[in-house]
Amino acid sequence: MPMRRMILPLAILAILSVLALLLSVLVGSSSLPLADIQAAIFEDGDALAKTLVLELRLPRSLAAFATGGLLAVAGALMQVLLRNPLADPYVLGISGGAAVGALLAMIGGMGGFIVSGSAFAGALLSTMLVFGLAHGSGSWTPSRLLLTGVVVAAGWGAVITLMLALSPASRLPGMLYWLMGDLSYARTPWYALAILLATCVCVIPLGRSLNVLARGPLQAAALGVAVRPMEWGIYVAASLLTAVAVTTAGSIGFVGLVVPHMLRLMLGNDQRLILPACALAGGILLTLADTLARTVIAPEQLPVGVITALLGVPAFLILLHRSR
Asked: Which residue ranges form the domains of the chain, and what is each CATH number?
């Protein structure tokens, strides 16, 4: 694909990203005029507006954008790895492991950084478990990896149900909100944004190899691609992205499934364009979904995972119908 044809859609998505972030900061239970936001960020504005923008809305909006981008890029990588357009970052049980880790910390009365660290540890444990079981004493195949992930995810689901049934009633609301996806306590988006940017910088130069790998391992090997190291790298990268996203915002579905599928229908299947487009489009989707979750029944809030599910299911069915 010529570079000129790649720049235009990315430029459009970048502009939409800025507009989505601006809308997210503007809108809330108490709306702020644009002049107050500008003064809060660049000048010595009103103290209340400064706190609302810099400590509450802007970090949450950036966390939503980073999480959506991480999930969408992870979904695109998983679909290349498994050579299945319906693959999803959570299909390998990574989110289940993260949920078990976070819920254990919540049951123990922990909060904040400890919950996030426990979720990340659970995600990594699930990654190693799936990879170890799928690899066994031989080599793994996409179908074997997929089936192992589905079984491990089902096992994590059973453990989560048991933990919820045995948990104290006072801790259930927070645990359920986390399981449905919650950005209320996302105040440190910088490491998620840094990981998203670093992944795009590292993976985009491999776009040609990913394009060949998506056509099958035999063709990729015939054209000089180191298939096994490439597959391992994709799996580790997708697992890391999903683990960071789950650590930041809890379990949020459909972003990693709908966004790459939608972009492929609109932009083609060139990974050099799809991966950065997924980072931007996933961020836009989750930022707008979080804005809707904060405002639809303000001052109460909905879990953002509920919004993505309500938007994702009909959108995916429409895309699936159009692509027949």
From this structure: 3-322 (1.10.3470.10)
pTM: 0.87
Distance of alpha carbon 246 from the chain centroid: 7
Phi/psi of residue 83, each to 5°?
50, 45
**Whole-number Cα distances in Å, 77 to 165, 217, 276:** 35, 15, 12
Nearest C-alpha neighbor of 310 from the set 214, 181, 191: 181
The label of the residue with tokens 């660290």 reads: 117
Count CA atoms within 13 Å of residue 307 on its CB side. 22
β strands within 112-226, DSSP E: none
Residue 158's closest CA among 81, 203, 100, 204?
100
- Give the max Cα distance, the chain: 64
pLDDT at position 206 is 84
The answer to whether 252 touches 286, Cβ cutoff 8 Å, is yes
pLDDT tens-digit series, residues 164-221: 888 888 878 877 877 888 787 776 788 888 988 998 888 888 888 888 888 877 777 8
Nearest Cα residue to 28 out of 307, 315, 316, 299: 299
Residue pair 218/148 in contact by the 8 Å Cβ criterion: no
Q: What is the per-residue pLDDT across 264-309, written as a single tens digit (0 to 9) for each? A: 888 888 888 999 999 999 999 999 999 998 888 777 788 888 888 8
d(CA 231, CA 228): 5
Under the phi-then-psi rule, with left for phi > 0, alpha for psi from -120 to 50, and beta for the rest, what region is 250?
left
Q: Compute CA distances 50 → 20, 46, 53, 59, whole Å.
A: 20, 6, 5, 12
What's the chain's length in residues? 324
Q: Residues near 192 by Cβ (< 8 Å), separated by ≥ 6?
A: 63, 66, 67, 70, 244, 245, 248
Q: What is the mean pLDDT of residues 113-136?
A: 80
Cβ atoms < 10 Å from Cβ of 188: 14
- Classify residue 237 by its DSSP letter: H
